[in-house]
Amino acid sequence: MNSIRIETEIGGARFHRAWHVINVPQVQKATVIFAPILSRILFVLCIISRLAFCGDQVIAQDDVQKLADRIDELIARKWAKNRVVPASASDDSEYLGRVWLDIAGKIPTAAEAQDFLDDTAIDKRRRIVDELLDGPNYVVNWSNVWRRVLIPEADSDVNIRFMLPGFEGWLRQQLDENKSYDDFVREILTTPVSGVNPYQDQNGLSPFAYYQSKEIKPENLAASTSRMFLGIRIECAQCHDHPFDTWKRKDFWGYATFFAAMQRQPGGNGFLGQLQELFVQQTLTVPDTNEVVNATYLTGVSPQIPSGSSARLTLADWVTSGDNPYFARTAANRVWGHFFGTGIVDPVDDFSESNPPSHPELLDLLARELVEHDFDLKFLMRAITASRTYQLTSSVRSADTAAEPWLFSRMAVKGMTAEQLYDSIAQAVGTHETFDTTLQARFAVTGRSQFVEQFSDSRSGPTERQTSVLQALAMMNGGMITRATDLESSRTFAGIIAYPGFDTARRIEALFLSTLHRRPLPDELDRFVKYVESNEEESTTKTALSDVFWVLLNSSEFSLNH
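Above: the chain sequence. Below: its structure as tokens.
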């Protein structure tokens, strides 16, 4: 069966109606001939009946869909130019798992997967995105995303790790309140530091850990903020002019001067000592020289900083401005890179003359739309996930679809982060751990913290993550998977075994929905049913079902975001 989709535009809004037709050449030819005529008929009928004829099949094209369609148009141009045939659309199961991992950071429950697969509404993909973005899992997952972006040092520095709960609590607060991205970055850039003692203020929700992770050094803060918020790797110009870009050493230290007023008080406690911001200091001497530089934006402009005011406030005004040539483009590119595994500029924080965007017009469009929608990152996420490009399958069925990743002609296969893998296993098993910002929690060693440390891989990009031998052994024989497939400790497994009226086929289907958020294919179901039912005794039947659960949890389909 094929769908004939007839669209028309009325008063700036686009409407459509779909009919299902048999996939035969004669019908396809008739579709081409009569589609314009049907479109005009539909237009007239909609006008006469004030759209009543179209009923719930009429969909006004909102800003999200307009942007999604524009994304697809610009991507398709690149396909045509490079003679690339895109992959087919993803099925519901593939889309469901992908969007849950990208937005919520874990797989859906069996019940949520079953409800989505059984839903026949044409807008169910848009609705599931809205539900996820408005739910608590989005807050948890994206606090992990931003923590990894802003404080990568936590993976190797125990002192920074000690401060993470307060920082992550602050991140969750920002995301829960749906702070705009410019306000989010502004609060990081302007957070008070005078008199702060992180050892004493351990339970406060604050972005101060960001400064602590950079050792409060102007050069570290300059390198980090320019890279994270502006997509510029200016750190190469710290000691000499950038060898491959236009940045000069004077540019680096002029930008670093915005952070030069933060100093440790004499007699402080070293790394954990109190700080003081001296509002009178607005210059900095370049190390190993006598050159004094003023605070200068990366555009080369030296602003007038009001007397008695923090230079960081002035910097924040420039960084988060809609007119900033870097800020919105970097944010849009980072969000795109999260959902596709590859940025329009890739790596996502390396905007330079030697690393141009693959789709410059698309990047400019996303940045412009982000500014026009008040830096609402959720708007961008809704549009990206509504696009045909995002909804392509990751499966490669022919040489035509095996194109370069930057063409986005099929969805890239992404390795799960350690947090996503743990939380997906916990979701499949039916367990969870609460979030705790207390001092005791900072020193507690939990199953999650051990797992994340073992599976963490901050050196590889989303499409490059690989599983080590030790990690593979942990998945096959580790305590977590052992408990997950044990009748006494796995809530999911115990519930499936005990559910009245379930035969072997229904139990296997429930295990598939719990792990792979899909129903088994006929040959999979037949093979697993035969394996389980070959064990006649009840105890061995349960063991066989446990084996099936173990196989599914250890499959690449479970551990990859595709």
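Residues 158-319 form one domain.
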